Amino acid sequence: MSVHARKGATFPLSRLSKGLSHLAVALLSHGVATGLALGFRLAGITESSVVLLYLLSVVIVSVMTDRVFGIAASVVAVVLFNFLFTEPRFTFVVSDPQYLVTFPVLLTVAVISSELMARIRRQAHEAERRELLTKELYESSRSLLGARGQEAVVRAAVDHLAGLTGRAVLCVIDDGSATLRTFATDESDDHERLVTPVRQMLERADTGPAVVVEAGKKSFLLAPVGAQGSIRAVIAVGTERENLPVEANESIRAVAVQLALALDREEMSRREQNARVEIERERLRSNLLQSISHDLRSPLAAIVGSATTLVSEETLVAETRHELARSIRDDARWLTGLVENLLSLTRAEERAVRFRGSVEVLDDVLASALNRVERVHEAHQVNVDVGEPPVLVRIDGGLIEQLVVNLLENVIQHTPSGTSVRLAIDRDGDEAVLIVEDDGPGLSETALCHAFERFYTERLIPDSRRGMGLGLAICKSIAEAHAGTISVSNLLDGGARFEVRLPIEPTDVSSDRLVAGS
Question: pTM, whole model, 2 decimals?
Answer without folding.
Answer: 0.44
